[in-house]
Amino acid sequence: MSYTSVSRKSAYGIVRSLRLLSAALPLAMAHGAVAQNLPSGAPTQGVPPSGAIPQGAPPPGAMPPSGFPQGGPPLGGFPQGGPPLPPARPHVDPDTIPEKAVYADAAALELRLSEDPPLTEAQKVAAALPVSPMAAMAEPPPLRSDAARSSPDPRDFSGVWFHDLSLHGRILRDMHGKLIPFTMEGARVLERRFKADKAGRPYQNGAALCRPPGIVWQADVHMPFMVFQSKGAVEFVFQDYRGRLNFVLDDKLQPSGKSYMGTALAHWDGDTLVAETSGFKQGLWLDIAGTPVSKDARLINRVRKIDNGDHKPLLEIETTIVDPKYYTDPWTLVRTFRWQPNMPLFDEYNCELQLGDPNVNSDAGLVPEPSETP
User: Fold this and answer.
1) Are residues 330 and 197 both part of a single domain?
2) What is the pLDDT of residues 171-222, one digit of tens each?
3) 22 Cβ partners below 8 Å, 6+ apart?
4) Are 144 and 342 in contact (CB under 8 A)?
5) Residue 164 placed within a domain
6) Together in a domain, 141 and 52
7) What is the model's pTM?
């Protein structure tokens, strides 16, 4: 493994550890105070903790899910068929409780602003916007003891992967914890989208129109995706919106023209697949809050498999956004995805039910967004 790979892995581990520590200490205190001010009649059952407990882990002292013996799995593993599925996380209506009680990044933003370098005027505009809360989401089924193993080849990403991190309503900071470096134009686009949503007339976006919304949004949704590989290309196929993105290794296979997901030309850097994507038909939303990417941007993805020897690897995708229209500097976010070979058959995804079906009220109140420039 190269020095660069070790440094990147160490840096990401430090960032992830700091996230957990910051959630476990100051955020827990802040959220405890917020929880004391829940509106009358607000539900408390199923409210996610402040982020101190990783996604999918039970709170300290909690009994294991139904069917699991006290103290964990029996010696030698579970019998054929694996353990019973844990119950799905209860749904929480985000409109009934304060957003800080369900979305830790809102409090994290406030707590850390005093520690940031002086904000630019554009960053002040973005930081002043409240963060949309996210409701609890179900976990994927646990892996059985006899689950298929990922290939030992570090360059073989083929198989099924599922999000390993909490879903973000709005991306606030880059992978190093720095506030996103908006230009004023980028901050105003985000502000305009927030105001439209608050007014009850949110703007249409690619996902609402059943168009592939780009790799960041597609991968952030809690639905599986598959990776297929050949010598000439690495193809990502998503359950949601039926999105497909080809990282083309053989430039003879490079498609012509623009697409919603863009066109990605890739190469190997050691065991890391590096792909530069451009040629978008329209601008992208990085998240449901509308963090913008212009159609002329370049996205640089670095994809690698992290395997600690337990045959349950993570797929790490770093995405660097190069977009002078909306950001003063390139910035990078990172996501990890867990090996999930027990989800090889995608559920039916009927995006069209949002639009055009005469049996469904498809008027969600969405309106066309004005030109990208406010």
Assistant:
1) yes
2) 888 999 899 999 999 999 999 999 998 998 889 888 777 788 888 888 777 7
3) 108
4) yes
5) yes
6) no
7) 0.69
* The domain boundary residue, chosen from 50, 84, 115: 115
CATH of the domain at 262: 2.40.128.20
**Residues 205, 145 contacting (CB under 8 angstroms):** no
The H or E element spanning position 178 is none
- The whole domain housing 9 covers 1-59+93-115
Q: Mark whether 54 and 167 lie in a shared domain.
A: no
Neighbours of 327 (CB within 10 A): 22
124, containing H or E segment: helix 121-127
Can you name the residues that pair with 304 across neighbouring β-strands?
Answer: 316
Rounded to 10 degrees, the C-alpha dihedral 114/118/123/128 comes to 40
Contacts of 66 (CB under 8 A, 6+ apart): 84, 86, 87
Question: Which tens digits make up the pLDDT trace of 330-340?
Answer: 999 999 999 99
Q: What angle do CA 343, 262, 156 make, to 5 degrees?
A: 40
User: Is the same domain home to 200 and 98?
Assistant: no
